[in-house]
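comment on this one:
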Amino acid sequence: MTDPLAFAAVDLGASSGRVMLGRAGPGVLELTEVHRFPNRPVRTGATLHWDILALYRGVLDGLRAAAAAAGGRLAGIGIDSWAVDYGLLDASGELLGNPVHYRDDRTKGVAEKVAAALPAGELYAATGLQYLPFNTVYQLVAARGTPQLAAARQVLMIPDLISYWLTGRAGTEITNASTTQLVDPRTRDWSPTVARRLGIDLSLFPPLRAPGDTAGTLRPEVLAETGLTGPVPVIVVGSHDTASAVVGVPADGEDFAYVATGTWSLAGVELPAPVLGEASRRANFTNELGVDGTVRYLRNIMGLWLLQECLRSWETQDRAQDLPALLDAAAAAVPLRSVVDASDPAFIAPGDMPRRIADACLRTGQPEPRTEAETVRCVLDSLALAHRQAVEDAVRLSGRPVSRVHIVGGGVRNTLLCRLTAQATGLPVVAGPAEAAAFGNLLVQARAAGAVTGGLGGLRALLRATQELRVHEPGGASGTTREAWDEAAARCRRAEGASARPR
């Protein structure tokens, strides 16, 4: 039997980054967090930026910790992060400035400019991507005419930028490239027609590469700084963290839906081909490319960002909450008293989220939450309804039957959200693993290195055999009957009509 190999999975999230040390081999799949570091955006003037150099420092510190734990030897390093954002390099390969945060407001009004050059229906038919105001294409159009973009010679998505600094070799990983709204999901290649009509220079993007490719090996100075013994390959994984998270869904068969939870909830199904019709566009579904030729057919939902911002707002008002106690109180609160459209654009920007939620309730004739617990219950009921609607729409639009829902990511730890999602969908919810993105990252690396074999089914079988999962059955408590959820779903649809979402 082959001995397990050691790998480092770098997983950069919107609020924190971590480096995980993984071991993988026949019958073996283990992950240990060796370093975690904050991801704090920085506002300079009117612009919200990512502190990319602090993130890179966190990656180097994490690789040093992984080296110490693994005796200096790693069989590979993989990097995944959030999507859509990018860094610009000049002619000498130097970073031109800190990447702009997707929550920055520079893209306000840009969608109308894009639609004037390329109507929304044509853009969707060409790229299959859900409208989100911060998609890369809108960011690039917003940056048109700026000195930075004029000086740029390369555009690197965030994980590709980290990989470039580690190896000195540039490339564009395909699953993350698909979130730019510049890729044709049928050909899995750039769409020159879209780029031409929007005035975007595709030559700025380095060549596409796929999960399992080798991005390069660590530069000598990186080896020296981290204490690793070379050569150490950086292995291309599904660098969009959701692509890695879907690899990390421990599903058996194809009749499953997934909800990758965290700052965002990404809910949908895995398909062999995109769904590009007008009904799909109007339902605001996206066709993001996945590992092994798959398509992640899903809807982006605001996710636990709503809860995170509520907690932050209360803390700034000297009303800091104990989260476990608050969730217990929310579980005891009246169910489905008020629900909101979890994808209302009013919730995107940082700010006083409890007030925004209360205002959304009042706009739709519902009682505003009176306590912190009622606010949290409103958030979680609304997210469960959004999960339900996304799963039902994915089934209807794709024709893929679903018998269960897998929840992975940080939301796995929120038992109330998992239970409410089971009640709302009427389907069993399998919760776990919480570190799905890191597991998916590790599995793709391990397969590329020969430590494990098989397709996605085989990789997921290894997950099921080695990880602890919890099943939440859909039976509801008093007040959360199927009829109660149906009535709340109707209220939620009315809330959608009152929101500022584009149609």
User: Anything to note?
Assistant: The chain has three domains: 5-241, 248-302+384-477, 305-382+492-498. The CA atoms of residues 405 and 429 lie 5 Å apart. Residues 305-382+492-498 form one domain.
